[in-house]
Design brief:
Blueprint: E1 3-6, E2 25-29, E3 31-34, E4 37-40, E5 44-46, E6 52-53, E7 56-63, E8 69-75, E9 79-83, E10 86-89, E11 93-97, E12 102-105, E13 111-115, E14 126-130, H1 141-144, E15 147-149, E16 152-155, E17 158-162, E18 186-190, H2 222-225, E19 229-234, E20 237-242, E21 248-250, E22 261-262, E23 276-281, E24 288-293, E25 302-308, E26 326-329, E27 336-342, E28 345-350, E29 353-361, E30 365-373, E31 383-386, E32 389-393, E33 398-401, E34 405-407, H3 413-417, E35 429-433, E36 438-443, E37 453-458, E38 463-468, E39 477-479, E40 488-490, E41 498-499, E42 501-504, E43 517-521, E44 524-525, E45 533-540, E46 543-546, E47 555-562, E48 570-577, E49 584-590, E50 592-599, E51 605-608, E52 611-618
Antiparallel strand pairs: 1-52, 2-43, 3-4, 5-42, 6-41, 7-8, 8-9, 9-10, 11-18, 12-13, 13-17, 14-15, 14-18, 16-17, 19-20, 20-21, 21-22, 23-24, 24-25, 25-26, 27-28, 28-29, 29-30, 31-32, 32-33, 33-34, 35-36, 36-37, 37-38, 39-40, 40-42, 43-50, 44-50, 45-49, 45-52, 46-51, 47-48, 47-50
């Protein structure tokens, strides 16, 4: 037989068996489709070299009036601002103790026990100590007087932390450490940290061992489920709120060295919500909007209540005849999941459908219209704007909204939802990458408690792809970041809890890390009727090398085969293709075959063309 060209249908299809998808692609990792052709992902590099603490599940970017590019990060432990290349901690302060902390050390241990009456901490909180004196040995004043993360809360009045020097290295107490740190010790406590693992219902095992009394349970209302921040800018300033907590305010004019403070503590503040599920700034009329918040006169969250401040005021929330502050309780569902700002409209997802919120001016200020009943959100960050539409992931499928909500046909639907870890589904988030016409949803699969896979949709070509977060691709938040021209995303390192923010689509790799990308076809018959065996004697590759660095850059073609659909694929031949390759003689025999194209370098990309194989009928020895 002569050379045969194999052209595969664009997109990954996992809705049938490998064999039933003949002529298509079945598996991939870090490969997208563009103009119907598979190509390797672009790379990523660190946006700044400074790490941050905690898992970030929110990034907000904006350009200040003076031209500063500003990035705000909300993690489960901290709130940060990045101006230029400088990262600053602006986490709000919860409480301050003056002249009230005592310390105790044990010889041979780095663990310090602090005593502070009714400290209000949870394990993982941060405290900055000042005014302490040496304990007499290695635990000096310099060691004590710095920021510490609390190791364990051992009681209402006590907690522990591990002593360290200013370089972050552990310091072990010796027998001379017998003092108590002096009587004038101050402690500045940051707001309580949130959960990094989603927990449902009420029960044991949510916080660290030893938190609370024996037999006690933790109320897992939205306060304790998972730490999400909602962040928006009010002009040059920032409003931010942890989910089911208070609203905080950061004044840019005070500088990055100034922490955010309670919005309700601002001068002339009036009836600012004290607990919200989400906050947002309206686009044209400049209202601050609270979704799922406490009514005036109550401290408890009404999960369907939407309140808004007076126009162009972040602090006036008291409705009067002379302002535009107000509120509306939604009637659809039982709780608000999330809200997303779109063009001249705000979409609000409840657990039972979607409500459209539009500015209409006085006397009603905003109108609320139910636009879809049934479709909801699997997680607060599972919706994103792109292509003048809203794409979102529900509990059983993918949807697009452009005036009405429509289900997206998905060729990998069962693959995603049959493997989705429903217990951690609240971590799912959507990411727009409009430069390549893509939406990605990152999600935890199997028994993983953190995001470890993604599903990708090209909305112009209606193609799907899949992949994993292996090779330093674990991402927990994403921002299109148009002010930077390239998307920003945050990483997660479970070992150190020190994470980075990355700029994406900047070449291929960050110069130090390699990442493996591959695409593998479904099985195809080498004989039209599927009978008999075929001998493959030659492969002519057609591949474009991008950002080529050397003439030895290599993409690997692997021919796999099996004789029956339920057999495992076996590798028949591996072929290394370089930019100067012409053809490769092969010796592969099988009844049906699949082709895998892969690379693991960080220095170049590739785009696949058509594959030609020289095949002929053959027996089998």
């Amino acid at each position: 037989m002569a050379l045969s060209k194999y052209i595969f249908k664009p997109g990954i299809n996992r809705e049938g068996t490998n064999y039933s998808n003949e002529g298509g692609w079945f598996d991939a990792d870090k490969v997208r489709f563009r103009k119907g052709r598979p190509e390797r992902f672009g790379g990523w590099s660190k946006y700044i070299e400074t790490s941050f603490v905690g898992t970030a599940r929110k990034i907000h970017t904006y350009k200040a009036i003076n031209g500063d590019n500003i990035t705000i990060l909300g993690t489960h432990q901290k709130l940060y601002v990045i101006i230029g290349d400088t990262l600053s901690d602006i986490t709000p302060i919860r409480a301050t103790t003056t002249n009230g902390i005592l310390f105790a050390a044990t010889d041979g241990s780095s663990l310090i026990t602090a005593t502070d009456d009714d400290h209000g901490c949870v394990s993982g909180d941060f405290v900055t100590i000042a005014g302490a004196a040496t304990l007499g040995g290695t635990i000096t004043a310099t060691v004590l007087n710095q920021e510490y993360q609390i190791e364990t809360v051992t009681g209402t009045d006590t907690y522990t932390f591990n002593a360290k020097d200013t370089a972050g290295d552990t310091v072990t107490a010796n027998s001379s450490d017998t003092g108590n740190g002096g009587s004038g010790v101050d402690g500045v406590y940051q707001i309580n940290t949130g959960l990094d693992v989603y927990a449902r219902g009420t029960g044991w095992g949510v916080n660290s061992w030893g938190d609370g009394g024996f037999g006690s349970t933790t109320d897992l209302s939205p306060v304790n489920q998972l730490r999400f921040w909602s962040i928006d800018n009010f002009g040059d300033d920032i409003i931010a709120a942890p989910r089911a907590s208070k609203i905080f305010f950061w004044d840019k004019s005070s500088g990055a060295s100034t922490r955010s403070t309670l919005l309700s503590a601002e001068s002339n503040a009036s009836n600012v919500p004290t607990a919200v599920l989400q906050i947002m700034m309206s686009d044209v009329d400049k209202h601050v909007i609270a979704f799922g918040c406490n009514p005036i006169g109550s401290s408890a969250i009404d999960p369907l209540l939407v309140r808004f401040s007076d126009t162009e005021s972040a602090i006036d929330w008291t409705p009067t005849a002379t302002n535009q502050a107000g509120g509306v309780q939604l009637s659809l569902g039982s709780t608000i999941i999330s809200a997303l700002k779109t063009r001249q409209e705000i979409l609000i997802w409840t657990d039972a459908g979607i409500v459209s919120m539009r500015f209409v001016g006085e006397p009603f200020v905003f109108s609320f219209t139910e636009v879809a009943e049934g479709p909801s959100l699997i997680a607060p960050n599972a919706a994103v704007n792109a292509n003048n539409r809203v794409y979102f992931m529900d509990r059983d499928g993918f949807f697009v909204y452009a005036g009405t909500a429509e289900r997206l046909p998905c060729a990998v639907l069962d693959y995603v939802f049959s493997d989705l870890n429903q217990d951690q589904a609240f971590k799912v988030f959507a990411a727009a990458n409009e430069s390549v016409n893509e939406i990605m949803w990152f999600y935890p699969s199997g028994t993983s408690t953190e995001i470890d896979k993604y599903v990708l949709f090209n909305y112009l070509e209606d193609t799907w792809s899949i992949g994993t977060t292996a090779d330093n691709f674990v991402r927990t938040a994403w921002n299109e970041a148009n002010i930077f021209e390239k998307p920003l995303a945050t990483s997660k390192n479970d070992t150190t809890n020190l994470n980075y923010i990355y700029r994406h689509e900047v070449g291929h790799g960050d110069g130090t890390d390699t990442f493996t990308s591959f695409i593998e076809s479904s099985d195809f018959d080498l004989n039209p009727d599927g009978e008999g065996f075929i001998f493959i004697s030659k492969l002519i590759p057609d591949i474009q090398f991008r950002d080529q660095q050397t003439t030895s850059d290599t993409v690997t073609f692997t021919i796999k085969g099996r004789d029956y659909p339920l057999q495992d694929l076996s590798t028949l031949q591996t072929i290394n293709v370089t930019p100067s390759s012409t053809f490769v003689n092969t010796r592969a025999r099988s009844r049906q075959a699949a082709v895998r194209i892969s690379s693991d370098s960080s220095s170049f990309g590739w785009r696949l063309g058509d594959i030609r194989l020289d095949i002929k009928q053959d027996g089998r020895r």
